[in-house]
Design brief:
Blueprint: E1 15-17, E2 20-22, H1 24-56, E3 77-78, E4 83-84, H2 94-110, H3 114-129, H4 135-152, H5 161-174, H6 180-190
Helix pairs in contact: 2-3, 2-4, 3-4, 3-6, 4-5
C-alpha cells in the first residue's frame, strides 16, 4: 500500500485536511497560517474595542484578547556542527543554518569528506560573524549555502551540477570583497568545481 502524496509539494502525506493530504512541512505551514489569521483577527477586535471605548469615554469596560509575544531566542544557539553567536540570532534565518547543519552531518555520513565538512562549517560561522555584510545579504547567502551544502551531501553522480555551479559562482561574487573570499575559494575545488 503506497502512501498518499502531499497535495502541495508531493512529499509523503501524513494527515488529511479536508480533501487535501499534507506532509509534515505543509501541515506546519497551514497551521502557522491559521495562527497568523487568528492573531490578526484578535488584533482587529482589540482595536475595535479601543475605538468603542474612545467614543464612549469609558475605558477598561471590555476585556481584550491577550496576544502572546513571539519567542525570540536570546542566548547562543548550538547546532550539531555550527555555533551561532547570540548577537546574530535575531538577524538571520536559523532555519537555513539548521539545513546547513543537517547537510554537514550528511556529508560526513555519506562521503566521509571531513575536510569539506570542516570547510563549510568554518565558512558558515565566518559568514555569520562577518561585519561587512548586512543581515539581508547574510540571509541570502545562507539560503544559497544551504542548497550547496545539500548538494555536497549527495553522491557526485546525483548532484545538480548546473544549479551547484550557479550558486557557487554567485556566493563567490557576493563575498568577493570580504574576508570570506579566501575561505570560499578553498571550498570550490572540494565541491568538484
Amino acid at each position: 500500500m503506497s502512501m498518499a502524496a502531499c497535495s502541495q509539494c508531493g512529499k509523503p502525506a501524513v494527515v488529511g485536511v479536508g480533501d487535501n493530504p499534507l506532509c509534515v512541512d505543509c501541515l506546519y505551514k497551514f497551521q502557522q497560517a491559521i495562527l497568523m489569521r487568528d492573531r490578526m483577527l484578535k488584533e482587529e477586535v482589540n482595536f475595535l474595542i479601543g475605538q468603542m471605548e474612545a467614543v464612549s469615554g469609558i475605558y477598561g469596560l471590555f476585556p481584550r484578547y491577550a496576544l502572546p509575544e513571539p519567542i525570540i531566542h536570546q542566548g547562543p544557539m548550538n547546532f550539531h556542527n555550527i555555533k551561532v553567536d547570540r548577537s546574530v540570532v535575531g538577524a538571520i534565518n536559523t532555519g537555513n543554518v539548521k539545513r546547513i547543519d543537517v547537510a554537514l552531518d550528511n556529508i560526513q555520513a555519506n562521503s566521509g569528506d571531513a575536510s569539506l565538512q570542516q570547510a563549510l562549517k568554518e565558512f558558515t560561522e565566518a559568514l555569520l560573524n562577518e561585519a561587512s555584510l548586512t543581515a539581508a545579504a547574510k540571509n541570502e547567502i545562507l539560503e544559497q549555502l544551504a542548497v550547496v551544502a545539500g548538494q555536497a551531501a549527495m553522491p557526485k553522480e546525483s548532484r545538480s551540477w548546473g544549479i551547484l555551479k550557479a550558486l557557487v559562482t554567485n556566493i563567490g561574487t557576493q563575498v568577493a570583497t570580504t574576508g570570506l573570499a579566501v575561505l570560499w575559494d578553498a571550498i570550490r575545488p572540494m565541491l568538484g568545481l
